[in-house]
Amino acid sequence: MNKYKVTFLPDQKEIEVARGVTLFEAAEKAGVYLNSLCGGEGVCGKCRVQVTQGNAKADKHSIAFFSRDEIRKGYVLACQTRVIDNLEVVIPPESRLEEEQILAESHLEEQRIWRETSPIAYSEPDWICLHKRPEDPASLFEPLVSKVYLGLPEPTMDDNTPDTSRIVRELKKKLKYPSFEIPLACLRDLSMKLRRHGWKITATVARHNDIGRILQIEVGNTADRNYGVAVDVGTTTVVAQLVHLKTGQVMGVEGSHNLQAHYGEDVLSRIAFACGKGPLDVLQQAVVQNINTLIQTLAQKKGIDVEDITSIVAAGNTTMSHLLLGLMPCSIRDDPYVPTVGLYPQVLAKEVGIDINSQGVLQVMPSVASYVGGDTVAGVLACGLADKIETTCLIDVGTNGEIVIGNNEWMLSCSASAGPAFEGGDTKCGMRATRGAIQKVEINNGRVIYETIGKAKPRGICGAGMVDLLYELVRNRVIDIDGRFRPSVQDKRVIEENSDLEYVVAFPEETEEGHSLVTAQSDIDSIIRSKGAIFAAIKSLIDYAGLTFSQLEKIYVAGGFGNYLNIDKAIGIGLLPDIPRERIEFVGNSSLMGARMALISSHAFEKAISISQQITNVELSHFAPFADEYMAALYLPHIDRESLFPSVNY
Amino acid sequence: MNKYKVTFLPDQKEIEVARGVTLFEAAEKAGVYLNSLCGGEGVCGKCRVQVTQGNAKADKHSIAFFSRDEIRKGYVLACQTRVIDNLEVVIPPESRLEEEQILAESHLEEQRIWRETSPIAYSEPDWICLHKRPEDPASLFEPLVSKVYLGLPEPTMDDNTPDTSRIVRELKKKLKYPSFEIPLACLRDLSMKLRRHGWKITATVARHNDIGRILQIEVGNTADRNYGVAVDVGTTTVVAQLVHLKTGQVMGVEGSHNLQAHYGEDVLSRIAFACGKGPLDVLQQAVVQNINTLIQTLAQKKGIDVEDITSIVAAGNTTMSHLLLGLMPCSIRDDPYVPTVGLYPQVLAKEVGIDINSQGVLQVMPSVASYVGGDTVAGVLACGLADKIETTCLIDVGTNGEIVIGNNEWMLSCSASAGPAFEGGDTKCGMRATRGAIQKVEINNGRVIYETIGKAKPRGICGAGMVDLLYELVRNRVIDIDGRFRPSVQDKRVIEENSDLEYVVAFPEETEEGHSLVTAQSDIDSIIRSKGAIFAAIKSLIDYAGLTFSQLEKIYVAGGFGNYLNIDKAIGIGLLPDIPRERIEFVGNSSLMGARMALISSHAFEKAISISQQITNVELSHFAPFADEYMAALYLPHIDRESLFPSVNY
Question: Which of A374, B135, B336, B579 counts the highest number of beta carbons within 10 A?
Fold first, then answer.
């Protein structure tokens, strides 16, 4: 079989591949990750690359993505171009999936903010007061997997119970589980271990279904060497936090782009991949690779042995959870939207290929329904929504927006497909909340003031920036309340491109890549559809519950907007309901926080199970008023501004 | 490496082995099993073979086992002789470990008797009335592993709970377990299975710790194809019974000699092997090979697929249980006699190498202490001792004798090392209860009438025969009440051999092998020590409990005597206490019966757990009066005949 060398610039990464492999696959092999929305179907045009040396013909179907000039310069779609020659390929910045270094930092920042402002001080044992057992707070800080040191009394003729009974007897004094299980693997040489090491051992115990499962028995006292990892498995981003399970201390956090994105940007295209082109394993392995890399990085940075990591709690939407466990997700997509499982079994991490202690466990957070997943349950747990007497609301804005409303007596959830406009997708210059993303915008008298993440030259606009921009455009009367550019507007920033109007946020000389950053009519339409879907979902759920917005004591807003969300402007565009500002709180990654809570407290995990079972999901696609609510929400802020958004005035 | 061919006669089995392998190992490889009491140490002289062709030097240390004539004829100890030439080797009958075909049949016979006479009609669902839940008898016939057919309602928008919740919801209607667990392996393609096969499945569910563990999910209705195997793992014999778990019907039974016997005849020599010469694995693999062969034979005979065998319940003494599971038994031997585990975990059969369904489970019956094992617990379960208001007693006579006394409020146990005299060991012409064993003896006026198993020519004397013989010898005043041959006796059957007296039971012309069958003074001493140890144990336990024999409503006698035990004569020699004959019942293999009860009823298994926890074990080696009781019992029937054996009169 012929082999060809492909060199990717600017990274200077070289790879040798067989004839006929696509450039997309070659790049992946070389460790260069490209954008893809469509999963390699050649229809999204996100994986543009420039072939600067060697023979590579642009596929005729993808010619439409390029200008004549670009075709001359060698631009092709990587997913539609097969290697038939030695090549040199340049990856333009916009086609690159960057590892989101910034995100991890921003998460740390987010957590700092959360730590200071959240109703639940999360890393102190007493946060678990939400479980209402203040009489015994120490026992509540009880990780899903604990390491318990036991100095056993030596047997005598009057006390010659079997070794395992002796262990369980002592364990019961320290862990209040009704029963314990010891697998055969721990028993084989147990009698030697005990007798040769003076009856001093450390048992690693995982809690599952009220049973303490002994995972390993080490000699001596190793109780200090017990670490866990909380993982937020997002459709777009995977973030992992390393936690010292003896103290609950967060030791580090790392984020990366979900490698599954190569096979489709959103949940539905990944299901389509798994259930069509497939195989499913590819998706499972991709996210497992994410997690393994994050864990290795965290362990290296903190100088710990991965063998001392005994547990992982992962929170993700229902599809991500199924893919992580290698479960066929096909039925999630089809009416009546039935997942395989809601209460995921506790499994050995190695069963899915995650490299931690060989007996370490993986627990996926339980989900509510096909489109209300473990990430939402984790968020509800983190916000304490299920423990409050007052009715509050959690809004998690992602490609799918999930809403939960309720209190300690009832909870309702729903989800709406919002599209990726707030996460950097679906718009010309959208990008995720990483370095160089415009996150704040103000427009005064035609002058645009913006702020980027990392104070870098702007490279695009992230979700928080989109909220601000939309608000500023309508406030400055550049666009009308239906989102259309006003015909009468006189502004040098409004230009016509391909008979479509665009607003120039940053001119070429200001930007990283020397192209102007714009928002086109189609972008504005996308954002309005996104915010309309989310608001309509909130409104539908409130109506379904027979409430009004004013009855919400608090709204927690979670999601990947960035480090920051301007609540006023979010209300101003009609994304969030018009209630007093101080009742709305941006909480960042509540999914990760809930996963960590479950990791460091098996009581919190139990609470998550009961949350997942208590929430009643309302399927909006079968809820008739939703369509009308959606239509009414496609205005800025809303067609019914007077009664729903009385405080919005522009 | 040089290879030599060894041919074993009369089997004509050939094997090629490397230079230096022992004849014992070569025979084992060839599938020819030899006797061994000492575990290959060259000290018991049980593995005599005759080398008829080729060069094989008798080890000088073992010369003492042979006459000059035998040495000339090529007799050697197989365990001490290394192969350094092509050889032809004749195995004399007495050196052969025979597969005990008869045993299986005798067990069937035993069960027929048991079925008709036992207080518990074991294969009918209503036997479980001992559990006192007659209000719901159907639910009590609930195998440890059930197969449940489920025709699930298809999901709709109003009922779109996850697939697993749908399964558990239906299962809960049929199995009253508080919760269910489904392993990842069952989930991967579950959604497809359900949707492609009309939502009709059969779940295989194992009960463990009140949790229903789903082992496999098959499409369609396979509930009829569910088999289990009950195994009695004896130190000497392994017996397996195939049971149809849908009906409880016993389909067949097979027995074989425990292959571990190659490494030592009794429990202590096997522990010594595992903890010294080792490795332990060899012992585990030996008994697993026993079980696999028995299962294959049963499956073939009954035309069933081993994949349809979903469960095994094994009962054995504590050492056998540890060895089967591959657990180090060393601490069992040492004061204070602590086993690794008493409540054995439910494990996958394949974890220990047993070939049944790949998800099938192995449950070992719980034990009480190092020398009161799961076989005794199974016996107590089978006799219903723990459920009776009246105080009864179970005596299990083996190399170790175990005694349990008690009722539904309390139970005491003890064990005493009785030696193998009742199992065919430790005596010149002793043999196990197989074809050709003398099992009944009567002596009248110097005339001996005997009966053999299978009505064959006599080959030896089994335990039941030894009881009869000893009784007849003392009744006929051939021996005195201290077991010594009377100096004054005039009997042509009493001969002197090597300045020791022997009694000839069968003359050479009557026997299979043409040698006379005798019982020597040393044999009589052995039997008296055995019966003395057992009676002393019973007496000690009765005294410990503050009872008298007359307060025992019933004594169940279990053990490997044969198909038969003459109760009168057993009392006559002082083995069993002198209570009215109708209160004593020989019950055969109560261990196997208890294992089967646990197999077909998880309630019975739970009962076994509570039995193992309720029994208080009395360690006789630390119970001062035991030694005196033992000394007093070394007479026929006892030193205190008048008060303890008033009905015995010879």
Answer: A374
The H-or-E segment that residue A127 falls in is none
Interchain proximity A340–B162, CB inside 8 Å: yes
Q: Verify whether the Cβ–Cβ distance B187 to A325 is below 8 Å.
A: yes
Span A370-395, pLDDT tens digits = 999 999 999 999 999 999 999 999 99
C-beta separation of B362 from B354 below 8 A: yes
Residues present in chain B in total: 650
CA–CA separation, A204 vs A223, rounded Å?
A: 8
Buried b (16+ CB within 10 A) or exposed e, B287-297: bbbbbbbbbeb
**Pick from A195, A211, A338: CB nearest B160:** A338
What residue has token string 């048991």? B114
The string of DSSP codes covering B99-117 is --HHHHHHHHHHHHHHHHH
CB contact under 8 A, B179 and A342: no
Supply φ then ψ for residue B138, to 5 degrees. Answer: -65, -40
Nearest to B328 among A155, A191, A369 (CB): A191
Give Cα A630 distance to the centre of its chain: 25
Name the 3-class secondary structure at A16. strand
Give me the interface pTM, i.e. the ipTM. 0.80
User: Sign of torsion, CA A183 A188 A189 A194?
Assistant: positive
Percent of chain B at pLDDT exceeding 90? 66
User: pLDDT tens digits, residue range B540-562?
Assistant: 999 999 999 999 999 999 987 76
Angle at B314 between CA B311 and CA B315, to 5 degrees: 155
Residues lower than pLDDT 70 in chain A: 1, 36-41, 43-44, 58, 60-64, 97-140, 562-563
> How many A-B residue pairs are in contact by the CB < 8 A criterion?
137
DSSP string for A347-414: EEGGGGT--S-TT-EEEEPP-SBTTB-HHHHHHHHHHTGGG-SS-EEEEEESSEEEEEEE-SS-EEEE
CB B500 within 8 A of CB B447: no
Cα separation, A126 vs A141, in Å, equals 8
- List % helix, strand, coil for chain B (3-state, nearest 5): 35, 25, 35
- CB atoms near residue B57 (< 10 Å): 12
Distance CA(A392)–CA(A549), nearest Å, equals 10
Output the six-digit token pair for A630. 């959606």
Looking at CA atoms only, how far is residue A52 from chain B in angstroms? 45
Nearest alpha carbon to residue B222 among B281, B146, B165, B275: B146
How far A628 CA lies from chain B's nearest CA (Å)?
21
B162/A342 Cβ within 8 A: yes
List per-block mean pLDDT (blocks of 10 residues) for chain B, which spans 650 residues.
Answer: 86 88 86 71 76 81 73 86 91 67 37 38 33 39 92 94 96 92 94 96 93 96 96 91 90 88 88 92 96 96 96 97 97 94 97 97 97 96 93 91 96 91 85 86 93 90 94 96 91 89 94 91 94 96 96 91 85 97 90 93 93 95 93 96 94
Strand partners, B231: B240, B314
How much of chain A, in percent, has pLDDT values that exceed 90? 66
> Do residues B170 and B150 make contact, with C-beta atoms less than 8 angstroms apart?
yes
